[in-house]
Amino acid sequence: MAEVFLKLEGIKKSFGGVRALKGVDLEIRKGEVHCLAGENGCGKSTLIKVISGAHDPDEGNIFIEGKKVENLKPIDSIRMGIQVIYQDFAVFPNLTVAENIAMNRALMTGAKKMDWKEARKLAIEAMEMIGAKMDPDILVERLSVANKQMVAICRAIINDAKFLILDEPTTALTAKEVEKLFKIIRKLKEKGIAIMIVNHKLDEIYEICDKLTVLRNGEYVSNGDITEYDRARFIRDLTGRDIEEIKYSPEEDENEILRVEHLTRVGAFEDVSFTLKKGDVLGITGLLGSGRGELGDALFGLAPAQSGKIILNGKEIQIHSIQDAMNNKIAYVPEDRLTQGLFLERSILDNTMAASIKNYFKKGKLDYKAMEIATDDWIKTIGVATPSAKPAIRTLSGGNQQKVAIAKWLNTSPDLLVLNGPTVGVDIGSKSDIHAILHRLAKGGVGIIVISDDLSELVQNCNKMIVMRNGKVAEVIDNTVDETTLADMLSGKQGG
Known about the structure:
Layout: E1 4-15, E2 18-29, E3 33-37, H1 44-51, E4 59-64, E5 67-69, H2 74-79, E6 82-85, H3 97-109, H4 116-130, H5 145-157, E7 163-167, H6 175-190, E8 194-198, H7 202-208, E9 211-216, E10 219-225, H8 231-239, E11 256-265, E12 269-277, E13 281-286, H9 292-299, E14 307-312, E15 315-317, H10 322-327, E16 330-333, H11 337-341, H12 348-353, E17 361-362, E18 365-366, H13 368-382, H14 398-410, E19 416-420, H15 428-443, E20 447-451, H16 455-461, E21 464-469, E22 472-478, H17 483-491
Parallel strand pairs: 3-8, 3-9, 6-7, 7-8, 13-20, 13-21, 16-19, 19-20
Antiparallel strand pairs: 1-2, 1-4, 4-5, 9-10, 11-12, 11-14, 14-15, 17-18, 21-22
Helix pairs in contact: 3-4, 3-5, 4-5
């Protein structure tokens, strides 16, 4: 059995009376890929900060390569070979690939000036180690998300990393990019580097991880070889409840909510036609650049179509702007809730009311009482975990933020709700809650369109799907298809 690199015993940490970690044990071995899983707010981030020296634990012991470590600081952690790659990668967009990769080495050695020749050499050496191909002289701001991640990994391994922590590394990656990342992780594993991945996507965990540790509410729940976990056990350990996964299958209803005919926007999508009937949850999917997101933008007037027809509840409508869409009772939950969907510093109430505020004016004044009642009703109906509507939305978990983003639009009483990536960055329990809400709305007569590249989400929760390729509808299918076949359709390996 491989040597233990990191051992944590009874780690406790509180912030202002809130117990973030309640006695967590963890053991990571060299050459092992270990998944740390848990829902938002379970203590994963706090634990990573304890390991990296950013937080001192209130109680408990830390052992690195068999030695007990006291008063661990970030610089000590780095010197001991621990490197953390967060979701934002912490790269400098205005510096080159080479400068980013060499930056930590320069800081570690106390260099006063950047040696550009040495930086370039280090960058090329690091890229060769993981099989990455990038121009070392290109500015990082010009790179794709996947290549920015490669830069962060190169920067870590060039500093003699022994233990690499990857925080939700696949969130913004395409399936092909995930495949490439996993290939690199396997290479690092072969070199004896210990790797911990924070993830809650079971299909990815099965593919890349050897071991799994689950946290819930700051407590250790379970640990074991990945083979010891089936989907049901994983979800139960993660959420503390059994979540039944049954494919959505509504009763057939001939009442047509939406018909789209030959919708076209040059350079984005062409000749798109589909229908949406009462009870349907329609999934729209495709690879990046397929036109799936642009189609959602057109339906909401963000970037309107140039030709074609949109017929909502039997009436042809014109969508030239967002106001047109809202006037026709169309709502849109964007993919990036943090920058497009929510006002992070404002309260839950302010966010819930943002799209429907004009409905609460009485004689030129806002009816705050009615706004409070409506927000409290949505908090209960949609299941937002909060003591009241007063806290800033940024204080909520990702899943609860997304529920508020949906409630904001439901408060406009839409006839059509379009959701782009409705559960990106949302934990399994909240995902299940959101899907149940969408199914309930669809059965109640609201048209629901889900734009997503999460294939399991589509197959489980959409009774109809259209697959887009190169801006056109390539396939129209139902959810009897499996995920593998759907993945093949996305790339054009199967179907028309």
